[in-house]
Amino acid sequence: MKRDKIIYWVSTGIFSLLILMGVGMYFGQHDEVVKMYESFGYPPYLIYPLGTVKVLGLIAIWTNKSKMLKEWAYAGFVFELMLGAGAHISVNDGGHYAAILVLICVIISYIFNKRIYKEEVA
Fold first, then answer.
1. Nearest CA among 65, 92, 73, 91 for reference residue 19
2. Sheet strands (E) in the chain
3. Cα distance between residue 19 and residue 31, in whole Å
4. 95 with 88: CB under 8 angstroms?
5. Is-contact 62 68, C-beta < 8 A?
6. Residue 31 CA: distances (Å) to CA of 3, 8, 34, 72, 84
């Protein structure tokens, strides 16, 4: 049980920090992110809403107030990271490694969140 909680908190912390670093780029280095989005063929008006939704997703995961919101947040991160990795692979810029690393952390966090919750209920 203790090992599961440690793995959960470490993986959740790592993925949260990496997501927040990306969000920081969205708002702090907006011009660079616009160039990146345009190279993917994405409209740059998605940058601010996506950054905002990522922060809300992290809040849903960390506060643990609603199981449904937490599930949706995990699903949203998985979809976003898979699509982001695919976009980086399509333009061959090497950015997919970070997306895959964060995706692995999200999956580990989700699995161990389920283990912890199952043990607490049982």
1. 73
2. none
3. 19
4. yes
5. no
6. 42, 35, 5, 30, 18
Could you read off the pLDDT of 25-78 as tens digits, one per residue? 999 998 999 998 888 888 999 999 999 999 999 999 999 889 999 999 999 999
Exposure of 105 by Cβ count < 10 A (0-12 exposed, 13-18 middle, 19+ buried)? buried
Domain ranges of the chain: 2-121
Four-CA torsion 71, 83, 45, 61, nearest 10 degrees: 20
pLDDT score at 118: 78
Q: What does the angle CA 37 – CA 96 – CA 67 come to, to the nearest 5 degrees?
A: 90
The length of the chain is: 122
Joined tokens for residue 77: 């991160």
